[in-house]
Amino acid sequence: MTSTTTDDPPIGKEYPPLTYQVGREKIREYARAVGETDPLHLDLAAARAAGHADLVAPPMFVVVYTSDAIGAAFFDPEVAIDFARLVHGAQEFRWSRPLIAGEEVATVVRLDDVQEIATAGLTSYVFTHETTVGGGEVVSTGRWTNHVRGAGA
Questions:
Q1: Which of 21, 61, 66, 130 is most exposed by smallest CB count within 10 Å?
Q2: At residue 148, what are phi and psi to the nearest 5 degrees?
Q3: How far is CA 87 from CA 3, 36, 143, in A?
Q4: Closest CA relative to residue 77, chosen from 131, 152, 3, 147
Q5: Element housing 104 (H / E)
Q6: Neighbours of 18 (CB within 10 A)
Q7: What angle do CA 146, 98, 74 make, to 5 degrees?
Q8: How much is the pLDDT for 150?
Q9: How many CB atoms lie within 10 A of CB 14?
Q10: Coiled-coil region(s) at which residues (predicted)?
Q11: C-alpha to C-alpha distance for 119 and 142, rounded to whole angstroms
């Protein structure tokens, strides 16, 4: 992909939901990788003693269970992001409750906006996600902003 934007980006395009099974060992692996020491994320007995059915995923585990869904949007040829010029802008997340090992979540991603920022030589791509569990209970939402530098930047 060589362009920094498309002539008519698919703003508003929603991508099919992708599911993720929250696994006990994945929670432990993530917690160890980021230096999390809260026993709710590492020790099944401690999590159960605190009233949870299983290990509790740390809040930023959101990047694990949303990664395939956001990746599908980022790599969509219709969006045409030039990854050689990509600069991370921002991420914002909201959670309604923690996820527990054993839950299956579904994440839907949407391309919310694409804007040329001529004064900065950037094209800004804004994606949002909504992750649900069970009968549609929203457990997290997020906004992912990425910038692509122009050819002269």
A1: 21
A2: -120, 125
A3: 15, 27, 15
A4: 3
A5: strand 104-117
A6: 19
A7: 20
A8: 84
A9: 13
A10: none
A11: 27
Q: Which phi and psi angles does 94 have, rounded to 5°?
A: -135, 140
Q: pLDDT tier at 3 (50, 70, 90 boundaries)?
A: very low
* Cβ atoms 64, 101 nearer than 8 A: no
**The residue to which tokens 């909504």 are assigned:** 130
Instruction: Say which residue the tokens 């929250």 belong to.
Output: 22
pLDDT digits (tens, 9 = 90+) for 26-53: 999 999 999 999 999 999 999 999 999 9
Residue 98 CB neighbours (<10 A):
17
Provide the token pair at 10.
């698919």
DSSP lists the bridge partners of residue 4 as none
In the chain, where are the structural domains located?
Answer: 18-23+59-149
Strands (E), 6-136: 18-21, 86-95, 104-117, 122-133
CATH topology of domain 18-23+59-149: Thiol Ester Dehydrase; Chain A (3.10.129)
Look up tokens 């290990």; give the residue.
55
Read off the pTM: 0.87
